[in-house]
Design goal:
There is one protein chain. Helices cover 40% and strands 16% of the residues. It is built from 10 helices and 9 strands. The two termini are 24 Å apart. The protein has one domain: TPP-binding domain (Rossmann fold, 3-Layer(aba) Sandwich), CATH 3.40.50. The protein has helices at 3-16, 27-30, 49-52, 55-60, 62-78, 83-94, 108-112, 169-181, 197-206, 232-246, and strands spanning 20-24, 99-102, 118-119, 122-129, 135-137, 156-160, 184-188, 210-214, 226-228. The protein is elongated and about 55 Å long. By secondary structure, the chain is of the alpha/beta class. Bound molecules: nicotinamide-adenine-dinucleotide and zinc ion. Residues 129, 131-132, 134, 148, 150-151, 153 line the site of zinc ion.
Length: 247
């Protein structure tokens, strides 16, 4: 298919939209070299990420879970945002009413220069104290030096939302407001299987809004209006460049 056949419907819809939103998942960071959980590089020391990223795994063996998080932090620190992240920054400049929500915990959107962002699953570079609930920056990579800066407790956990946990109330409420008002959602690099995020596109569609999905793999969870079956780092810069020329 030509560029026009693939991108024009998405650009037309964006031009018409009054309340657009973007939801990104692990796929947008794949081209930066950060593994997705379900991709072939998701496993670590024979552990399945879908079982490690759980409160049960942390309760049973917090050391292993922390070692996995420290390993992922080191990978993320050594990687850079890609053309997809930068294209979203440009789109936000062109469309100030655009709301960007990410399921990612890697901070790459911010490193690309995005200032306003909802991180619905937290951030891997923060930790939460289980004794006093303080959330603090976590730049340590050794387990022995992990202490709460507020109370000194070593009962700390990554400040991320694990499978089976709910998203903190104040964040989910703002996000659900955005979803209820959105007339267009662009889902980028998300498998559409992790709730509540998987329900966002369904909700926008229910109100006859537009759904644009950017993902190189067919995605059975969505039956979207506009499907761009390409890697985000290839599709997004062209989409944003052509949008910018037409508006
Ligand atoms: N980078 C990160 O921060 C990171 C990485 C892995 C997992 N996670 C966490 O795990 C959860 C897993 O859910 P998920 O649905 O986001 O991820 P997922 O791993 O379930 O799915 C990733 C999706 O990205 C697609 N994809 C792969 N390469 C792509 C590319 N170049 N461009 C566009 N799409 C591409 C895949 O086809 C897949 O559908 C997330 O909610 C997140 O909290 C975060
Ligand atoms: Zn504390």
């Amino acid at each position: 298919m030509s560029d026009n056949e693939v991108l024009t419907p998405a650009i037309r819809a964006l031009l018409k939209s009054k309340n657009p939103m973007i939801l990104t998942g692990a796929g947008i960071s794949a081209e930066s070299g950060i593994p997705t959980f379900r991709g072939k590089d998701g496993y670590w020391r024979n552990h399945d990420p879908l079982t490690l990223a759980t409160p049960e795994a942390f309760a049973k063996d917090s050391r292993t879970v922390w070692e996995w998080y420290n390993y992922r932090k080191e990978i993320i620190t050594s990687k850079q945002p890609n053309a997809g992240h930068f294209a979203i920054v440009k789109l936000k400049e062109l469309l100030p009413d655009l709301t960007v929500i990410t399921q990612n915990v890697d901070g790459l959107h911010q490193r690309a220069g995005l200032i306003e962002l909802y991180e619905m699953h937290g951030n891997i570079f923060k930790m939460k104290c289980l004794s006093c609930n303080t959330i603090s920056i976590n730049s340590e990579t050794t387990l022995e030096s992990l202490f709460c800066p507020e109370c000194g407790s070593n009962r700390v956990r990554p400040n991320v939302v694990w499978f089976g946990e709910s998203i903190p109330g104040e964040i989910i409420n703002s996000i659900l407001d955005t979803v209820r008002n959105a007339d267009l959602i662009m889902t980028i690099g998300t498998s559409g299987t992790v709730y509540p995020a998987a329900g966002f596109a369904i909700e926008v569609r229910r109100r006859e809004g537009v759904v644009i999905d950017i993902n190189p793999d067919a995605n059975s969870a969505f039956s979207n209006d506009i499907l761009i079956r390409e890697p985000a780092g290839l599709a997004l810069p062209r989409l944003v460049e052509q949008f910018s020329a037409l508006r």
